[in-house]
Design goal:
395 residues; Butyryl-CoA Dehydrogenase, subunit A, domain 3; 3 domains; 13 helices; 48% helix; 15% strand; binds flavin-adenine dinucleotide
């Protein structure tokens, strides 16, 4: 697990150099501000990472992974964030890839993994339904066997990035017998199959992130079922664990801290740079300590993942805390900026704010709004508290 200090410094320098040579300054600027970099730039960045052997570092080497230990993976993510690399293809690289490696059959791995790595397939997650969010096991979208196909009918909602995706990993009901959890299967659906309709859902501030999908007699090959029929709940749970581990979002918090620190030199409190204000410095120190604790906790969880093969309910602790740390940093940025956090994107794009408002103020309020979402996605904060109470505190 331990990397020699000299090797670690060399590895960090290698990543820094790679970013310097390959990262378009505009993409870096957008990533540092927490803005989407666009499909073309994401694909371009992933192509460069794949060429370097860094496209999916956590995967098995056989499928293009790096073979690094957890410490090295952690450093990789940390350095990539520090140098402004965009976070791309989470559903592909951090969700469906690991799931297929753990639960897929040989044909599924050979077909889907290379295309997930190259982004030829762009994946989205079809779990939630109207009325089945926190209570996911109650889901109703049904898949009925018809020869070597399933016929799928129902709807999925809150599908992030579904408008950009061409594939969905999906939970469907294949049995109504016994416990709800025991009648769910895990299906891979090509979104170009006839019978699928998408409806965009816009955020209250205008962004198009979500979608609702409707399935009317959609024929999906049985060969696209991952794992046994009615055994999808176990797979879904292991994916949610991955999702919650990722939800600690310590690298995004590190970027936000960088932004807050830069702003502290530009924005003035009582006529002096904020960084010289005692109250601000005190708050900044708290945010730095919280983030360091989150990073250490994430590192410990990764070690546990290696030693015990899973982190179980501790993923909920990371999710809960990671969201809090991120939201506090967003709030600190908005509070420091005051009204300068509010200008609309159009004003920035028109150049009306050049020189008047720090560039780091861009998108500050929108980022704060956006980060209300992850507190609900992948299991709400209340649900995480319930898991911790039951499975860690044994109350
Ligand atoms: C940003 C974002 C991205 C998302 N992306 C996706 C995606 O890509 N794919 C996908 O399938 N879904 C996605 N979702 C949906 C998400 O998984 C659900 O919104 C979430 O599971 C909550 O379900 P719900 O919206 O139906 O709310 P409900 O389950 O109806 O919850 C309503 C309220 O009740 C509380 N509550 C519910 N049950 C309990 C309980 N047992 N104990 C205490 N409080 C409880 C909740 O905390 C919440 O405050 C996304 C959601 C968001 C916000």
């Amino acid at each position: 697990m331990n990397m020699q200090a000299g090797n670690e410094a060399a590895f960090r320098a290698e990543i820094a150099e790679f970013c310097k040579d390959n990262l378009d300054p505009e993409v870096r600027r957008l990533s540092d501000l927490g803005l989407p970099v666009g499909e073309e730039a994401a694909l371009d960045w992933q192509t460069k990472l794949v060429a370097r052997g860094w496209g999916a570092p956590s995967w098995d080497e056989e499928w293009g992974g790096s073979g690094w230990d957890m410490r090295k993976l952690f450093i990789f993510e940390e350095e990539m964030a520090a140098h402004g690399a965009p976070l791309v293809g989470t559903f592909n690289i951090k969700m469906i890839g690991p799931i297929l490696q753990a639960h897929g059959d040989a044909a599924q791995k050979a077909h889907f993994l290379p295309k997930a790595l190259s982004f030829e397939h762009v994946w989205c997650q079809g779990y939630s339904e109207p009325g089945s969010g926190s209570d996911l096991a109650s889901l109703q979208t049904r898949a009925e066997r018809d020869g070597d196909h399933y016929v799928v009918n129902g709807t999925k909602i809150w599908t992030s990035g579904g408008h950009l995706a061409n594939h969905m990993f999906c939970l469907v009901r294949t049995s109504r017998e016994g416990r709800q959890q025991g009648g769910i299967s895990f299906l891979l659906i090509d979104l170009n199959t006839p019978g699928i309709t998408r409806r965009p859902i816009h955020h209250f501030y205008g962004a198009h992130v979500f979608n609702q999908f409707f399935f009317d007699d959609v024929r999906v090959p049985v060969a696209n079922r991952v794992g046994e029929e009615n055994a999808g709940w176990g797979i879904a749970k292991s994916l949610l664990e991955h999702e919650r581990l990722f939800s600690a979002r310590h690298t995004e918090a590190r970027r936000k801290l960088g932004r807050l620190r830069r702003l502290a030199h530009e924005v003035r409190i009582g006529g002096r740079p904020a960084i010289e204000d005692a109250q601000f410095r005190d708050d900044l120190a708290k945010r730095m300590i919280e983030l360091r604790a989150l990073e250490n906790a994430t590192m410990r969880a990764l070690e546990r993942l290696v030693d015990d093969g899973g982190i179980g309910p501790y993923a909920s602790v990371l999710k809960l805390r990671g969201i809090e740390v991120n939201q506090r940093l967003d709030r600190a940025i908005v509070q420091l900026l005051g009204p300068d956090a509010l200008p609309a994107q159009a004003a920035w794009e028109g150049g009306a704010l050049d020189g008047l408002v720090p560039e780091d103020a861009r998108n500050a309020a929108e980022t704060r709004y956006w980060w209300r979402g992850p507190a609900i996605a992948g299991g709400s904060q209340e649900v995480q508290r319930g898991i911790i109470t039951k499975h860690i505190l044994n109350l």
